[in-house]
Amino acid sequence: MERQKQRFAAVLVFGGIAFYFGLTHFNTVTHWISGLAGLCTPAVIGGIIAFLLNVPMTAIENGLKKLLYRRHPEKAGKALRMLSLLLTFVCIIVVVALAVLMLIPELRKSIMSVIAQIQESLPALMDYLYSLGIDTTWMEQQLAAIDLAAIDFKELASQMITGASSMLGTLVGAVSATISVLGNALFSTVIALYILIDKENLSRQCRKLLYAFVRPELGDKIWHVGSLIREVFGKFLGGQSIESCVLGILMFIALSVFRIPYASLIAVLTAVCAFIPYIGAFLSCGIGVALILLVNPLQAVLCLVVYQVVQFIENQFIYPHVVGSSVGLEPLWTIIAVLVGGAAFGILGMIFFIPVMAVVYTLLKETVNARIERQKAALQAETMDQIIEQAIKTEEEESED
Fold first, then answer.
1. 278 φ, ψ to 5°?
2. pLDDT > 90: what percent of the chain?
3. Contact between residue 283 and residue 307 where contact means Cβ atoms under 8 Å apart
């Protein structure tokens, strides 16, 4: 008891000293914190990348175990893990390459169509301006009024040199920033690879570290919450990826059947924007309709109708079974999570507040169920005590008689 008092007093004294130092040297402390955050940024990003890649890698690894080690899955070693990681990167590269190959021709086609529409409508626009009495010859007059002899070429040359030097400084800054970002991305990827390859050993070390500094009961609760977060987020990412692919394929088939232009572009946009619940559908639909409106207004209306029909089918029959059931969250709480996450953190909040709400919902449900079970047990024990007392009284009364 005396040692605990001394430890508490030491913590209080050193904490007060640290707080006073932080207040008196605020700029120095913030500089240290920012430098430490900069050093830890690759590790944090690497952990996030590993967390995201762990979902497809685990699915591929489990599939390979069933295929190659059906009878003896315990024999699967690091070679299978490396193969699963390699196949995960291959799948990501293939998906990105297919998306780019589908997007570039469609983007080029849309840009050329917009330019052609502008060229076709420009004469009509000029005629319309003339019909309104708007004279555009003022542009020619402004150009003709430029006096080349009045230009000070020395001043112009100095301005050009100054602009070139500032542009060079901006270019150097952009190059250095790009190199820094690429370096952080490389280090983060390497850290993610090491985490994924040796994730069981890291998990065991984290668990030992946790139980070394907290009580076993608290350690069990913390580990349970962490496991629940990993499980819910993994299911959410997996379900959302499947749902996005299914929706993109359905949209491409439907638009192609009705021969609507930019079918592949709209399908890819739909698959990407599907990660943003509710808002993503409106965004991809609006972009698609706007592009088709430049080509054919009637097809734009048809695209809007087809898009909404496919989206309705997907929301009613696919999304609840794929994503909703994967995280165990009711539609009402899903909408609340999207609204709260969007208001607090924007698009990222809309995406990731659904699994956060699922974790909170699951923990709250477990707490409520545990309290109800304890109350039931206490009530049963109380009832049992009353029954025993009544039996004793009855026995005593019978013995007296």
1. 65, -55
2. 0
3. no
